Amino acid sequence: MCGIVGYIQTNKSLNSWKLVFEGLEYLEYRGYDSAGIAQIVNNRVEVTKAVGKLANLKRKIAKTPFSLSNAAIGHTRWATHGKPSIVNAHPHISSNGQVALVHNGIIENASRIHKTVLGGKKLQGGTDTEIVTEALAHILIKEKDLSKAMFKLVNILEGSWAFVAMDINDSSKIVCARHNSPLVIGLGENYNFVASDVIAFVNHTKNAVEIKQDQLAVITCEKVSVFDKHNQEINFTSQKYEILWDINQAQKGGYSSFMEKEIREQPSAVRNTIYGRRTNEGIIELDKLSFDKSYFAQINKITVIACGTAAHSGYVARFAIEHWCRIPVEVEYAHEFRYRDPIVDSKTLVVAISQSGETMDTLMAVRYAKEQGAKTLAIVNTLGSALDRQCDAVLYTYAGREIAVASTKAFLAQITACYLLGLYLAEIRGNLFIDEITTKLQELKTLPDKIAKILTHYEEICQFAKLQKRQKSVLFLGRHIGYPIALEGALKLKEIAYIHSEGFAAGELKHGPIAIIEPGQLVFVIVPPQNDRAGVHAKVISNIEEIASRGARVVAIAEQGDQTLPKGITKTFFRPKTPILFSAILDIIPLQIFACSLAGALNLDIDMPRNLAKSVTVE
Ligand code: M6R
């Protein structure tokens, strides 16, 4: 949450603020409640801020253009403390005019700092960031050097932060520090960047340096110096890496939204996650493993922790892993997990699923699980993210960058990775024979083509969605592996189309929720394959009859050739024949397209829905 960018260069031939603005545009997915840029020009600060999206900031800058300058910092905000307003927007400038600072995170002891360091002095807005900006300026008066002052400051803070700060009297350097929030430096020739994510500067340099937990960095035009938590300068060669992807991945590529582009990229997200995992001997391998594989044979429980869409992929995983490995799988929202005194010990494998790898709730749950002696395994899309580093084992999803706030291709890749994990465990634990695993892998490999086939119906689903603009409420029903898909379909619709929607276990309907069915109510129903072996197909058909007879307009997601669907169904979208355990990955696609198309028809900002941000980096 919140995106920050800093830029410093030798000369002023390029507009520093423009490069910072460009970086913020790529980071806008992290928050869009307000934005701002500050730069130093002849020992004075120029700052422009605007409430709302970056387009508002752009308009303001056009009216009062910035001067040329060699250093600038910028921020795009997702509000935690304090409403979105100009006063609360970053960069914050200290009241003595000496410090400019941007911050991503939450300072938990801000009010104590306000009292102890600032003597409770009167503030403009009173956000945690305003307090630390004032505190940094206060400390700087004595320390004289911004990096020394930053070191003193972070030593008295609690919470999470990525800071980028400038001393208005010294435009030769930018100082940054991090604790629980990401920061990465982009190395150039006679210029350097720092940002929350490499996406902000990958267009200019592919040479990056990850700032690690509790490190502090001083960035000048020609040099980067990194200090550890004792303020000792360190050799940071091992923190350097080359960015291997291209800026094209962060562009819409001709589609009207990133969400549509990402929905259409799902065949390759699944394909890339499957391939390259088997050794010549036919064994599935994890991407990282810091303990002996034999541990997996000794575990007696798997606990999946995740949030939002990632948690829904965990619910799908439970069906496959329990069935193949005969081991209990619990799925729990990460934010609930550690507060209920869960039973976790050295025989529990905790699987944390996350697209960003930065979700604070998930990171905290992993930390808790490790403290209880559990081994942790991450299924994560972002290489080098906090979750990637924190877990004992890792299975990457290769969905590529996901920009739209509503997660789509990462979800399919997460389910795919869960299937692979299930087969990996089944192999080690001896639950399945190698030929059974091979057959399932072959089936898995057919999924990208089946996804592509469903995508050929994109326009048809879109046209149907456009006719539903007046819906005030949409319900989603599923049984067995279709239930998490109902939850995910409802989540997609509420987060981007702002339409009340709920996912129900179809069998639960008659225990209460059926009371809300009125004539005309739109209900999506996930119909399992006919020969599902779990015996749920017939039950779901009955559920359709129950709601249709009460006037519901039913949209079925069903298997190609299913002749048993009741008459009077409003619309059916078909999926190619697939075994029930793999069907979830196909059934969600029409629901994603429906939500995306309906939000588009309602003229809503599909990629940046209100009140949300892509990565939730606060608890
Ligand atoms: O980055 P993560 O996968 O950890 O994020 C988890 C959720 O915040 C995320 O899936 C969220 O629910 C999405 N906006 C759903 O589309």
Concise summary:
The protein folds into 3 domains: 3-249, Glutamine Phosphoribosylpyrophosphate, subunit 1, domain 1, CATH 3.60.20; 259-445, Glucose-6-phosphate isomerase like protein, domain 1 (Rossmann fold), CATH 3.40.50; 452-619, Rossmann fold (3-Layer(aba) Sandwich). Helix content is 35%, strand content 23%.
Q: What ligand species are in this complex?
A: 5-amino-5-deoxy-1-O-phosphono-D-mannitol
Q: How much helical structure, as a percent, in the residues?
A: 25-40%
Give the neighbour order of strands across the main sheet: 3-2-4-1-10-9-11-15
Architecture per CATH nomenclature, i.e. the level-2 architecture of the largest domain:
4-Layer Sandwich
CATH class categorisation of the largest domain: Alpha Beta
What does this structure look like?
With 619 residues, the protein is α/β, with parallel strands linked by helices. The chain folds into 3 domains: 3-249, Aminohydrolase, N-terminal nucleophile (Ntn) domain (Glutamine Phosphoribosylpyrophosphate, subunit 1, domain 1); 259-445, Glucose-6-phosphate isomerase like protein, domain 1 (Rossmann fold), CATH 3.40.50; 452-619, Glucose-6-phosphate isomerase like protein, domain 1 (Rossmann fold, 3-Layer(aba) Sandwich). It is 35% helix and 23% strand. It has 19 helices and 26 strands. The strands form 4 sheets. It has an 8-stranded antiparallel β-sheet, covered by helices on one side. A hairpin with a 5-residue loop joins strand 5 (92-93) and strand 6 (99-104). Helix 7 (266-274) runs parallel beside helix 13 (409-429). The longest helix has 22 residues, at 580-601. The site of 5-amino-5-deoxy-1-O-phosphono-D-mannitol (M6R) has 16 residues, from helix 9 and helix 17.
